[in-house]
Write a structure and sequence with these properties.
alpha+beta; six-stranded mixed sheet; 3 helices; 6 strands
Amino acid sequence: IEKIRFAERLEYVFEVSDEARSQSIPRSLLQPLVENAVKYGYSESSRSISIRLVINYDDPNLVISIYDGGKGFDEALDKGYGLSSVYDKLMLLYDDAYDVSFTNHPDKHISISIQTDKLRADD
């Protein structure tokens, strides 16, 4: 839908390693992160939105990173509904066996590292 809305101003690339393709990603985990990248990823200099989704598996961690070319993250990051829902989902599924990081340099991105061997047995 966003590609239709932004047309040629929205560019995106998906890079998924072969090892990561065999891993499951919880439902609705990526959508709010990609939506935030579209919302906050506008680059004034290029007048476009460029998003790169990278998923790698480094046993036992699945690492999901979403890059965009927008303004850097604020130090006092406001967690809106989408980001809060991601944290809630991660806590429910993985207890404390995950890490979320926000990086501005050298490239702005959010990364989630999930210890897949810690998936709760009752899920």
